[in-house]
Amino acid sequence: MPHQPTSAARHLRRLLELLAAGAPAEEIGAVAVEARRSGASAPDLAEVEQATEAALRVQGALTQHRRREAELTALFDTAGDLAALRDLDAVLRSIVRRARMLLGTDTAYLTLPDEEAGDTYMRVTDGSVSELFQNLRLQLGEGLGGLVAQTARPYASPDYRSDDRFLHTGSIDAGVLDEGLVAILGVPLLLGSGSGGQVIGALFAADRTPRAFAPDEVALLCSLADHAAIAIDTAKAMADTRVALAELAEANAVIREHSAAMQRAEESHDRLTDLVLRGGDVPDVAAAVAGLLKGDVAVHDGSGWPLTTVTGDGGAFTRGTGDAGDAEAAALVTAAESSRAAAHAVFRDGRWVCAVLAGQELLGCMVLYGRPELDGPDRRLFERSSVVTSLLLLLRRSVAETENRVRGDLLTDLLTAPDRDPAGLVARGRRLGIDLDRPHVLLVARSGAAARERLVDAAARCLFGGSGVSAEHENTVVLLLPYDGTGPGEAARVAAGQLGQLAGTPVTVAGAGPATGPRAIADAHAEGTRCLRALHVLGRAGTGASADELGFLGVLLGDHHDVDGFIAATLGPLLEYDAQRGTQLVRTLHAYFGCGGSLTRAKEELHVHVNTVVQRLDRIQALLGPDWNTPEQALELQLALRLHLLSGT
Known about the structure:
Layout: H1 7-21, H2 25-37, H3 42-83, H4 88-103, E1 107-114, E2 119-126, H5 131-134, E3 137-138, H6 143-151, E4 155-157, H7 170-179, E5 183-191, E6 198-207, H8 215-277, H9 282-293, E7 296-301, E8 306-310, H10 322-342, E9 346-348, E10 351-358, E11 361-369, H11 376-416, H12 422-431, E12 440-446, H13 452-462, E13 469-473, E14 476-482, H14 488-503, E15 508-515, H15 518-537, E16 544-546, H16 552-557, H17 563-581, H18 585-594, H19 599-606, H20 610-624, H21 631-647
């Protein structure tokens, strides 16, 4: 028969099997109970009980080893996470999750300080179900977490609600109660060691039932907290490094940009200086600035009228004519005044405007179009170009004033002694750039006596850059301009506006011409002088006109006595209407005036019904305008009617 194992041997083999299977302590302890129940002998029972105690010790050691192995694995994995740190939140969530798993708690969480608010807040939670708890904020010294942060030491509470070692607050207790936590273990997140360590947060593990945390559990959570502190510090260092690199890159970009701007400014300064040294003029500077700044550039005089205009590709452009030009000129003068007050270029109406100054005198302005964004270096270049322009304008003005004085002597001789040596006057004019054999318009201007000097200066500035000439003569200022197709009346009106603006006072201007040769120019001056007196007598001071535009006064004042022109200008619409339709409007008007404005007498004179007279007068009003019967108009009409009858046309 086979050998039967003893009772003790059987139970000992069972203990070995349970140990090999990793059975819990309850099953191992049950082996001794089973041996006693099966009636084992006293020696066998004693041996089994001793073996059971040994097996429990072995089982405890194995459990401890497995736990330490899990802890070491978790710490190793955490270290790996730190080595491959990409996302701080992901690393902190992993640490909190491992703390909860290794300590076997219901929840784990991590708090960090809020430097702006001056408190701490929940950064990461795992296993939490309460929104109130997840949004808790703790002041320094409040609750278990506040105590951990204040003392930089770990604290464990088996029953938080009854623990009086720390300061309870209503909000914290409400959050803990809402989460259902009872036992809480908290450890500090420390940077550095010893008394100089800095607390940058706290790591917690908590259960919803009472629990006493073992020292090795506290040590484990401290190790995880150390890793969390390293992760936070590393992330902060990396963030600081990224910020520093970004600032360095930005600084390098600024340095490169500044260097490029300095180089461009130097090149621009050399180019503008070279232009001046080579005898360049204002248009050359404007063209250079337009090319450098990639925009359209215009230079205007002190009254806002353009001296030169250049596009970025070297072409010319025009902006504003007529009333629009007057409005634009006024707007530019206002912008230039703002630039003078600010001592910098100003942006107005979609363009940059920089005053061109000689001291505080406004010589004009430079205008840049097409560059709404003008950075510092380009803006300084634009402003510097205005200084160069002011130097050129001053040079031009100085030369022009000298030339104008010499030309003014010629003009004075033309007006005082045109017949003394006509050929010599023409020759002098050619040497000074004035061709007296070509048609010229002559303007006679007058202002108040107190403003006469300003008017003389304004005339010189008005002709600045042109081929005209001005001179003071018999308490007036005379301007001789090459005839460009603009009639003397229009030229007088334009000059009245410009001279008045430059002199700062109303200026009356009379125009005459066009005239060719010394004698004709002198006669034009005499006609202009008479016209100027008529403008003042008529109360039209501060305006401009020619003798031809003064109606019958023009016929009397003018040298040519253009009767036919006066008749055509006054009765032209009626004469044309009668010629085309065979009517008798001119005869009816003559009868109406001849009868003293009486309709009854006029209808008898004309042998028509009174309604016919009324209808004809209505037609006359439609052709001549509603003011035809005013005293001034009526006088001109009656004079024109008499001259018409005398001429026999």
